[in-house]
Amino acid sequence: MFHYQIPRRKTRQIRVGNVLIGGDAPISVQTMTNTETCDVEATLAQIQRAAKAGVDIVRVSVPSLEAAEAFGLIKKQSPVPLVTDIHFDYKIALRVAELGADCLRINPGNIGREERVRAVVQSAKDHGIPIRIGVNAGSLEKDLQKKYGEPTPEALVESALRHIEILYRLDFHDFKVSLKASEVFTTVEAYKLLSTQIEQPLHLGITEAGGLRSGSVKSAVGLGLILAQGIGDTIRVSLAADPLEEVKVGFDILKSLHLRNKGVNIIACPTCSRQEFDVIKTVNALEERLEDVMEHLDVAIIGCVVNGPGEAREAHIGIAGGSPNLLLYEDGKPSDKVKEEDVVDVLERQIRAKVAALKESPGQKRTIPIKAVG
Ligand code: SF4
What we know:
Layout: E1 14-16, E2 19-21, E3 28-32, H1 40-52, E4 57-61, H2 65-77, E5 82-85, H3 90-98, E6 103-105, H4 114-127, E7 131-136, H5 142-148, H6 153-169, E8 175-180, H7 184-195, E9 203-204, H8 212-227, E10 234-236, H9 243-256, E11 264-268, H10 279-289, E12 297-302, H11 308-314, E13 317-320, E14 326-330, E15 333-338, H12 343-360, E16 369-372
Parallel strand pairs: 3-4, 3-10, 4-5, 5-6, 6-7, 7-8, 9-10, 11-12, 11-16, 12-13
Antiparallel strand pairs: 1-2, 13-14, 14-15
Helix pairs in contact: 1-2, 2-3, 3-4, 5-6, 6-7, 7-8, 8-9, 10-12
Bound molecules: iron/sulfur cluster (SF4).
């Protein structure tokens, strides 16, 4: 299967816990908890679910010193690195750094007095953690709103450069930057503009993108336009939905662009009256059953013999509609006949066996999408 590789912009590499961002590191996928941070149990449960879905980094909002103490307890048990989201209060930043935060999301220009900014930056240096500058169109400085009239790409970049200059002045270079707007073209242009001006990694996102369906589409279009230009080192899909969905959509976007091959890639036909088995039901059932599979595998699920054999031959595992039985393919070759009622169980079994075999002999790895074709 032909896989175009997007040439990526080379950025300075930073480290968030055990996850590298920038340089030649894979583009990481992030989400953010939406629980009360003081509810340690609920927040931790959400982080663990996201980790199971493969998330690389989770951001936790820390709005108070009480939440900072809760963060300390969460951090002790978190399976993935945690970024703390802090607005204004430098004391919270200092405390979460002590408690093991893997990155501080705080805008230096919003901290206030110089000695406070210095204290936060010194703390990040002492603990060896990076800072994320996050510029958001919704909270652009008043003077920039006045100067530009609206949150234009140039306004977002000027805002980011103000924060960046503070860090440079304090000789701090391990940071990443996000420039988020809910309008796709504003966001795309802002990232393009900033990418020519700094060497630090960029954290991509379309902010307040919307609900599960519309937000996923908007994020895929927006992030796709940026990523296709080789820009972006880590992403977060912002959805008014379960954070788990943000993780799944994030990986799907990267998979679509061949930037990250994580999990089963299902290739499925849209179905029509020619289908010999229920393709949609099969795809939905498999996606649910295979959520825990992190290895890359192409699986084709095709309704009939029009496109079935051709697509199935290109995948690691394939199933093509046929009568009276469906045809199973493995590594491009027909391997068995399957009854419709057994198709989900058989595919799951074959996929898991293939994943186990690939784990044992990683050298044999090839691209496998789960396909439904039409
Ligand atoms: Fe219909 Fe195409 Fe799917 Fe065959 S492969 S069932 S023709 S949509």
